[in-house]
Amino acid sequence: MKLTTFLKDGQPRLGIVEGEHVIDLQAALPEVPADVRVALEAGTDLMAAAAAALASRAPRLPMGDLQFAPLVPNPGKTVCLGLNYFDHAKEGGREKPDYPWFFLRATSSLIAHGDTGRVPRVSSKFDFEAELAVVIGKRVPRHTKQVDALGYVFGYACFNDMSVRDYQKRTPQWTIGKNFDATGAFGPVLVTADELPPGAAGLRIQGRLNGLVMQDANTDDMIFSVAQTIRLLAEVLTLEPGDVIAMGTPAGVGQARTPPVWMKAGDRYEVEIERIGTLTNPIGDEAGEGG
Questions:
Q1: Helix, strand, coil tally for the chain in percent (to 5)
Q2: Which of 42, 55, 239, 274 lies deepest, with the highest CB count within 10 Å?
Q3: 152 touches 239 (CB < 8 A)
Q4: What does the alpha-carbon distance between residue 85 and residue 200 come to, in Å, rounded to a whole number?
């Protein structure tokens, strides 16, 4: 099953993807919450709801006509991993980490497929990071075992963890460079875990700047798998329905190139993950130019 979140009258709506069309789930089943996090928190059987929507006569909306929202419009928390591909750690001059470099991303930084990523007024060092995103479907108890961890995953999506590198390096903690407004792109579709290999393993992940391949790897190259990551997080905190984990980026980022390659107004970055889809965002600046 593939889901998406789009805007109707300025408000997020949960949709079921059917080919190149989307069924507004609330049009087919008004009792189903319009927000995937709320639906998951309520214990809604979204698989059954999707099947009913697909069998219904609810209108099919062309995907190309929709304005998207971030897949989870208001996640309780978005946990990100740094240096989770060895080649990316190496290109940054670091050793393979023994423990994930966790940091949090604020909901106010999130944007949707098709939205404009904004080069901040205070910096031009605006970088790209193609990533796999994990959406938690059920509350993960503390100290969950790794063998059980994937049972709590609802699905997977594309993410672009756009980074303001000079601000990221101003402190030992990366938070400030990872939370500028309009820098966390998320979407356009959420593919349920049953449609992908366990842990979304073995999938090609690629990032393209203006059509040029910049990042090209496989999710098997991750240092910490999805299951390992959930186990390690469960040692510390409770993961809840609708929480998001961004699993880190492979090598090829702009700051590691000679000379560095920074995104600028007028650019476009695509994140494509095999069997999941393609997330595309134009790049503009804070004045609104280029996007």
A1: 25, 35, 40
A2: 239
A3: yes
A4: 15
Could you tell me the pTM of the whole model? 0.96
In DSSP terms, 157 is beta-bridged to 133
Confidence at residue 88, expressed as pLDDT on a 0 to 100 scale? 78
Angle, CA of 12, 209 and 100, to the nearest 5° = 70
Query: What are the residue boundaries of the structural domains of the chain, listed by start?
Result: 2-65, 78-285
Q: For the chain, which residues score pLDDT lower than 50? A: none
CA 260 to the chain's CA centroid? 24
Asked if 51 and 89 touch (Cβ cutoff 8 Å), the reply is: no
CA 168, CA 176: separation in Å to the nearest integer? Answer: 6
Residues 54-65 pLDDT 10s: 999 999 999 999
| Chain-centroid distance, C-alpha 30 | 27
Task: Kindly write down the DSSP assignment for every residue of 24-52, as one continuous string.
Answer: EHHHH-TTS-SSHHHHHHTT--HHHHHHH
Architecture of domain 78-285: Alpha-Beta Complex (3.90)
